[in-house]
Amino acid sequence: MTSTSVVSDYQVVLDRIRLATQQVGRKPASVRLLAVSKTHTAAAVARLYALGQRAFGENYLQDALPKITELIDLELEWHFIGHIQSNKTREIAKYFHWAHSVDRFKIASRLSQQRPSGMDPLNICLQINLDHESGKSGLDSTQLIALAQRLQPLSGVRLRGIMVIPKPRKGFEQQLGGFQRAQVLFHRLQRELPGIDTLSMGMSGDLEAAIAAGSTLVRVGTAIFGQRSLKMRSTIDV
Ligand SMILES: *Cc1c(COP(=O)(O)O)cnc(C)c1O
Questions:
Q1: Tens digit of pLDDT for each residue in 178-191?
Q2: What is the mean pLDDT of residues 176-203?
Q3: Is residue 232 one of the residues assigned to a domain?
Q4: What's the mean pLDDT in 94-108?
Q5: Which amino acid residue places its CA nearest to atom 6 of ligand 1?
């Protein structure tokens, strides 16, 4: 992957987002792009930063921390999007601005307690297991409102919305169905609680359908940075 192709691939993704919003009468600025830099280098992140990208997503702490440390002088916004284990919450609370993959009270509570004083609350999304896939992260949608309400007193986190990774489906119409179910949940959450503004859904292969269903943040890796190495892919894309 040469830097020139990252530059042009980034432009292609920005164009896809713009076109997808226009096609459903939304403003391009209503969708944020999270560049998923997992497995890619700090240099690749810095190149995108030079093009104006600020928000980057990582799903492995041990892969992310060296990059975050190396690029500490850049004004980057780091989003944790991987499964969160209890023993990782302290560093996530310290080094990240967002965590998209909260699915248990215990995790939210630890993130809140461990958020260093003097920092703004950590922005969090609740991850929902939309297709009831066993072995996958995410809470059952029937638990969403109750858990969201339980988080309200936690001062170190700020609930912003929901995150979903639907089962991979081919074709716009098939993808749209899953995303629309997430949109219904998002609107329900918005009616229950203040400050809910983030519907995190859509990746390289389905961002158009996600945007048609109201996504406010798409998480895009491969379409910007190219394929991840096979070795890494087998362990993280589960
Ligand atoms: C890897 C990953 C992405 C990006 O997927 P691509 O298909 O490479 O765009 C998005 N969200 C999560 C949670 C991921 O782990």
A1: 999 999 999 999 99
A2: 98
A3: no
A4: 98
A5: 221
Residue 238 in any domain: the answer is: no
Full residue range of the structural domain in which residue 106 is found: 3-225
Q: Which atom of ligand 1 is nearest to the CA of 59?
A: 15
Strand partners, 139: 128
Cα 220 to averaged position of ligand 1 atoms, centre (Å) = 6
Q: Is the pLDDT of residue 7 over 90?
A: no
40 lines ligand 1 (CB under 6 A): no
Tell me whether residue 109 is in a domain. yes
Q: Which atom of ligand 1 is nearest to the CA of 228?
A: 8
Give a yes or no: residue 46 inside a domain.
Answer: yes
From the CB of 35, is ligand 1 less than 6 Å away? no
**Structure-block tokens of residue 58:** 């990582």
Q: Report how many domains make up the chain.
A: 1
For ligand 1, atom 11, the nearest C-alpha belongs to 219
Kindly report the CATH number assigned to the domain that includes residue 117.
3.20.20.10
Tell me if 111 sits within 8 A of 93, measured CB to CB.
yes
Whether 204 is in the pocket of ligand 1, judged by its Cβ within 6 Å, is: yes
Index of the ligand 1 atom closest to the CA of residue 81: 13
